[in-house]
Amino acid sequence: MSHSSDQPRRLIVLGSTGSIGANTLSVVDHLTRNGSEIEIVGLAARSSTTSLIEQAKRFNVQHLAVADKASAAKLQEALPDAKVFAGWDAAYQLVKNTECTDVAAAIVGIAGLPATLAAVELGRRIHLSNKETLVAAGDLITRHAAKSGAVLLPVDSEHSAIFQCLAGVKDQPRSKSVRRLVLTASGGAFRERSLEQIADSTPEDALKHPTWDMGPKVTIDSATMMNKGLEVIEAHWLFGVSPDKIQPLIHPQSLVHSFVEFIDGSVLAQLNPPDMRSPIQFALTWPHRTAGCGDKLDWTKLSDLNFYPPDPARYPAIELCYRALQLGGTAPAVLNAANEAAVQAFLERKIAFGRIVELVAHALETTKPQSADSLTTILNADQAARDCVAEELTAKHG
What is the residue-averaged pLDDT of the chain? Predict the structure, then answer.
């Protein structure tokens, strides 16, 4: 597929009613009002019918997908001329049956993997904010992208920052030019609490993120710093850098979104105020830049910029992610699925906060890794990990 940067963009937004999806539509609105040719041709959500109807009308979208079948009926009734895909594979069907150039992969969790893989196989430009896709299926996704010509454009602020910092490294393999990639982290809601306070924290406590406004799953992952470990795995696959050259650092100000240290001692960092619209817009306009809709950095008011390594006792999730990468195969898929299940159990008040990482560690150690060579194998590993967590929950409550 041709990836001419000047052709009109025809964009499908997977997860359009979530935080990243809504921000993506806001950026599209800004760009089209300023002369960019972007057409929203497809929207997918799990069950948020009211929001989906409003978005479809606002952008005149005729192809829609919703996982919940009851919601699909309401959608079809409100938009009789629209083509509505329904069921667990609705987003996948939307991607397969809608002509597009770009796909914004913003569905949270493993649910976004089949549709994202389909978009990769079709050679689309993928605006990747669903980190679980590369965590669970990094080898599969990157192999298919190499074959189809799909372009992976990271939308996570950290990976977008590294992508931008590496843009000038063209004539030398990264294995020779890069000393390390540093992923910055806010430290989440609990960076200043004692370990005793953290262990018994409630969902309300964990959802009070100091910097970003994100959905519940991602916010809890930020509190455990599992998100940073998952980002290490994602960075390994996105940038082809070995795990020992990828390091998280806590940076409470959240202004330096990540940086690259080169072997000659030079460091390139990417800074802007914490606003997800900036990396979303970079992906939508890549390889060009246009006037942004996010806040601008005021250099005259910059406070101190602090960086320090995460405490392993406070954030054991990070080490688990390195372990999953070391085990290889389906181990990262197991880690990801166990984490999704454990976070959901915590949000439903079935477990204490301190049990999230324990459950993930248990699943990782007891579920034997397989070769991650197909979507079926990865989804089977995902289910095995969820079953493992469910059994642990039953045993504790039984």
Answer: 92
Local structure of residue 265 (DSSP, 8 states):
S
Q: Are residues 178 and 133 part of one domain?
A: no
Any alpha helices (H) in 66-215, and if so which ranges? Answer: 69-78, 90-97, 113-121, 131-148, 157-165, 174-177, 195-199, 203-206
pLDDT tens-digit readout, 256-266: 999 999 999 99
Span 158-166, mean pLDDT? 96
CA pair distance 283, 286, nearest whole angstrom: 5
- The candidate with the shortest Cα–Cα distance to 179, out of 244, 123, 91, 270, is 244
Residues 328 and 223 in one domain: yes
Beta bridge partner(s), residue 12: 42, 103
> Are residues 257 and 376 both part of a single domain?
yes
Q: What are the two backbone dihedrals, phi and then psi, of residue 350, each rounded to the nearest 5 degrees?
A: -85, -20
251, 186 Cβ separation under 8 angstroms:
yes
My answer on whether omega of the bond before 216 falls inside 30° of 0, hence cis, is no
**Half-sphere exposure (Cβ direction) of 164: Cα atoms closer than 13 Å:** 26
Amino acid sitting at position 36:
S
Distances (CA, A) of 22 to 43, 70, 124, 314: 11, 23, 21, 33
What Cα–Cα distance (Å) separates residue 15 from each residue in 50, 66, 109, 228?
14, 10, 11, 22
Q: Give pLDDT tens digits for 238-253.
A: 999 999 999 999 999 8
pLDDT at 209: 65
89 and 24 in a single domain? The answer is yes
CATH number at 337 reads 1.10.1740.10
Strands (E), the chain: 9-14, 38-45, 63-66, 83-86, 102-105, 125-128, 151-154, 178-185, 246-250, 256-262, 267-271
In angstroms, the CA 56 to CA 82 distance is 9
Task: Give pLDDT tens digits for 176-227.
Answer: 899 999 999 988 777 878 888 787 788 888 887 666 566 788 889 988 999 9
What tens digit of pLDDT does each residue of 14-29 get?
A: 999 999 999 999 999 9
* Number of domains within the chain: 2
Of 14, 10, 33, 8, residue with least CA distance to 293: 33
pLDDT per position as a tens digit, 79-102: 999 999 999 999 999 999 999 999
170 has a pLDDT exceeding 80: no
Which domain range does residue 353 map to? 172-268+296-397
What is the maximum alpha-carbon separation in the chain?
62
